[in-house]
TrEMBL record:
InterPro entries: WbsX. This is Glycosyl transferase. Pfam families: Glyco_tran_WbsX. Keywords: Transferase. GO terms for molecular function: transferase activity. Coiled coil: none annotated.
Amino acid sequence: MKIIAFYLPQFHSIPENDEWWGEGFTEWKNVKKAQPLFKDHYQPRVPLNGNYYNLLDDEVKKWQINLAKKYGVYGFCFYHYWFDGKLLLEKPIEQFKDNSELNHPYCMCWANENWTNAWVADKDPKTLMSQRYGDKPEWKTHFDYLLPFFLDDNYIKEEGKPLFVIYRPEIIDCLNEMLDYWQALAVESGLSGINFAYQQLPFYLKKDKDDSRFRYNIEYQPGYALHDMKTNDKDKSSSILYKFRTSIREVINTIDKTFKTNFIAKFAGNKLRLIDFNEAWKSIIKRGPTNNKSIPGSFVGWDNTPRRQNGTVYTGSTPAAFQEHMINQIKNARDIYKTDKIFLFAWNEWAEGGYMEPDEKYKYGYLEALNNALIETGEKE
């Protein structure tokens, strides 16, 4: 089973972030300033041995690759930031391509949203870098940048087709024309084509979407799980008996549940949304593929309060729980989805609480849990 982990490159400084967020800004700044907001809230997260690394150091990437190989992370999916020819945070993946010692499978996900200050301005975010898609000349320039990665032996391909993920296809007005042009350019360049994939709910939920250009729909978690949980709750709430039982249950659980979540969170000065990690995973396992394009997702945790004042926290994540869920999801991927891939949130999303890298609390626990799950399911010796 190929576990492909999303990989955030924002662990080195760039001039743009210096201007927008202060000199020397990296994702570690968000991580370090985090505070616990309720009882037993695991913040701040501290990397093992205080390893606040700089991704421009190839020794760091070698360390990451060694961990990934040892514990069963097949590859990385790097976020790619391209704004009509302007690149951001591109150096780590360029070094990955150019240094033969960084030998590990990888692919790219184009994070094609506007770059905003939404972290600190939930209501009225300011656009710092806008997306424009242009026409064939702009598409050609973008493709020409991508091509050396696609041709790299380490780039993830199927039948000669590189895998390229688009974060939010629904906001690209020239989507089909651009993807068709890229397919033609890929064939002209000696490739068999491109396997396009998308990962976010808005395109999946769009009723009039045309996903004919996409080979895969990546079920990005926990986003899909949250949607399914809300939908199931809405369906259940239409039942009179369910409403009655829910009313009784709410009365019984008022002190235990409501106080611990809503009151404590608001008392801390934030409007937090607390969601049970294990309940979310039940929804993930239950989901099943929509069609043969579906690739199952997984997540190790989620807590974006270091980034957002009004954040979301999935409570109850532990290595033991993650291992149990991954065993089920590996079986699910193999037997129900009929695929050899699972996308994992995430390798190093430290400020969103989704990371496999070792920390001071759990050490190598999540990596060991993944490794154990792969061995338990016969996917690794």
